Amino acid sequence: MKRSIILMGPPGAGKGTLAKKLISLGLVHISTGDMFREAIKAGTALGQLAEQFIKRGDLVPDEVTIGIVKERLSQEDCANGFLLDGFPRTLVQAEALDEITKEIVRPIDVVLNLDCDEKELVRRISGRRVCKVCGAPYHIDTLKPKVDGVCDLCGGPLYQRNDDNEEALKVRLEHYTHQTKPLLEFYQVKGLLHNFNGSLRSEVLFDEIVEFLKS
Ligand code: ADP
Ligand code: ZN
Prior knowledge:
Elements: E1 4-8, H1 15-22, E2 28-31, H2 32-42, H3 45-54, H4 62-73, E3 82-85, H5 91-103, E4 110-115, H6 118-126, E5 128-131, E6 137-139, E7 158-159, H7 166-180, H8 182-189, E8 193-197, H9 202-214
């Protein structure tokens, strides 16, 4: 099975939702966005720095982001496979990742790209709610919790991310178009890129991807 995986796609394409399902295959989920949000919640120096960028929709500086990913990928649990979600987002990060994977002797097996049209992204993100405790994603219209405002999985409170507003989303989409989207070409040339339809229902997409990873 393909076990060293990069998940790519614009904000709202469903990377996080898919990743949380794929951990059932024994892959370690490495989400830079989740790592930053945890650091913010814990009030660390990293969190204080990252928050300034994230709330505006801007990218956290490369050297900071590369540092945390390098440290995470060097940990023992990644030896069995990992799922990078939200990294790399710039060419500098992609080149640094090439070096890191050489050092840990685990080359990237595949890049899964989730396509999704912009109107759908805006709809998904503006209605998105997230569990404060376990990070499970919900949507006010299409993925409602059983009890309003409460996570089905852990009972934690649901909240709206402070970068899930119209203004920050516009900035995030621009960074995606100008800095992250060009990476598709970078991985296409390496023969690693595989496109999937991010507009599919999450269960359907999950089945398709599991089948592909096993092929
Ligand atoms: P989404 O994919 O919905 O935009 P993420 O949770 O992946 O959200 O990321 C949230 C924010 O965290 C980004 O908008 C950015 O500010 C920061 N971030 C996450 N990953 C990176 C990265 N690889 N490089 C720079 N900033 C990042
Ligand atoms: Zn929860």
